[in-house]
UniProtKB/TrEMBL annotation:
This is 2-keto-myo-inositol isomerase. InterPro entries: IolE/XylAMocC-like, UCP036778_sugar_epimerase, Xyl_isomerase-like_sf, Xyl_isomerase-like_TIM-brl. Keywords: Isomerase. It holds the Pfam family AP_endonuc_2. It comes from the Bacteria. The keyword Isomerase applies. One of its GO terms (molecular function) is isomerase activity. The keyword Electron transport does not apply. Residues 19-258 form the Xylose isomerase-like TIM barrel domain. It comes from Paracoccus laeviglucosivorans. Gene3D superfamilies: Divalent-metal-dependent TIM barrel enzymes. PANTHER family: BLL3656 PROTEIN (PTHR12110:SF48), HYDROXYPYRUVATE ISOMERASE (PTHR12110).
């Protein structure tokens, strides 16, 4: 497994310190976020230099929201974020759907993807479509995303982002390893939470109490040909407050390696 780090693992760290953390953990692929002040306040070219000096590849900038409800405002935000991602040396831009309970018709998703292609392609970026499994999400399942991407012209400029949390919440049963460019992992351990009550704030590092079947999901993705990065994306405040996030991440990596290698 090629482990990677999303900056949300340790949002209190500056970009250089986050890059140093990744280096120490042997993760040479990272994701930066446009919702962290230390990132958005920096010159993108400086971030590119810092990543290069650290020997790191920036997989993605996370994220454009809501990509599937096109408007003039979204077009402007998409262009600015894509410009930032390209200058920072990122390979891709994560794209999340509307998540407020409103339905978005398939035709509008296709149109949004067509508009995004015109923004991504000249900047050398790939759009990573991340279905959100929340009950109120307008795009919950990967087969819906695949259908829209196919109708919008195919996968030259797009790929799926498989998030183990959202896959579980959506009750998704389909895997598209050869259409997937990135996997996000996080765990939920609270035994009292119903699936529909799970939120980003409940997403911790994966351990033996995981309820999301991370090991099973990864085992299947890898067995069916996925060979991309597996990026840690824990949102829980208690993870961000850990006194030694490096040790905690190392423990989670060791757990996942052992669990994925176990017979199903």
């Amino acid at each position: 497994m090629r482990f990677a780090l999303n900056h949300i693992c340790a949002p209190q760290l500056s970009v250089p310190d986050f890059f140093a953390l990744a280096q120490r953990l042997g993760c040479y692929e990272v994701e930066i976020r446009n919702d962290l002040p230390d990132v958005t306040g920096q010159d993108a070219a400086q971030i590119a230099r810092q990543a290069s000096d650290a020997g790191l590849t920036i997989i993605s900038v996370n994220a454009l929201y809501p990509f599937n409800l096109w408007s003039d405002d979204l077009a402007g935000r998409a262009e600015r974020l894509a410009d930032f991602a390209a200058r920072a040396g990122a390979q891709s831009l994560v794209m999340c759907p509307l998540n407020d309970g409103h339905k978005v018709e398939h035709s509008r998703v296709v149109a949004a993807l067509e508009n995004m292609r015109a923004i991504l392609k000249p900047r050398g970026l790939k759009g990573l479509v991340e279905p959100l499994g929340f009950p109120q999400s307008s795009l919950r399942r990967k087969d819906e995303a695949v259908a829209a991407i196919t109708e919008a012209g195919g996968f030259d400029d797009f790929a799926l982002l498989h998030d183990t949390f959202h896959h579980h919440l959506a009750g998704d049963t389909q895997f598209f390893p050869h259409r997937t460019a990135l996997v996000h992992v996080s765990g939920v351990t609270d035994p009292a939470l119903g699936i529909d009550a799970m939120l980003d704030a409940h997403r911790v590092l994966v351990d033996g109490d995981d309820r999301l079947e991370n090991a099973g999901q990864l085992r299947r993705l890898l067995a069916e040909g996925y060979d991309g990065p597996i990026s840690f994306e824990p949102f829980a405040p208690e993870v961000h407050a850990l006194p030694d996030i490096e040790a905690a991440l190392r423990d989670s990596m060791d757990h996942l390696r052992a669990a994925v290698e176990e017979p199903a």
